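Format notes (please read before filing issues)

Several people have asked whether sequences and C-alpha cells are stored in separate files. They are not. Every record keeps both together, in the order shown below: the sequence lines, then the C-alpha cell lines. Line labels are part of the format and must not be stripped during preprocessing.
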Amino acid sequence: MSNTIKIYHNPRCTKSRETLDLIQKKNKNVEVIEYIKTPPTEKELKEIIKMLGIKAEQLIRKKEKLFEEKYKNKKLSEDAWIKAMVKNPILIERPIIINGKKAAIGRPPEKVLEIL
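Then the structure lines:
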C-alpha cells in the first residue's frame, strides 16, 4: 500500500487549496488529481463513496449552478448520481482526500487530519 495521499482537487476552490496546504505542511506525499480535468471513473467514484460511508447524492455540490438547473428536487438512483458526477465533475464535492482505505471530504479542511 502506498503512503501517498490522493487529493481530488480544484485549484479554483479556496477549501481545496487550504486542504492541500494542510496536507503538505504535514510533510505528506501528495498526488494531486485535478478532477475537473481528469474526472474519476464510475468505479473510482463508487470506491470513494464506499470509503466515505455516504450515499452518492451526499457527494453532490447542491449550490452548484448545474445542480440547480438540472438536478434540484430530482430523486435519482445511486448509479444515476454517479453517472451525473462522472459526466459533470463540477458536481463533485471537493476536496476529497484518500489515504489508503480511508477517505474524507476537506470541509472544513481540518477534517482531513482524522485520516492522516
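For reference, the curators noted about this record: The longest helix spans residues 14-25. The radius of gyration is 14 Å.
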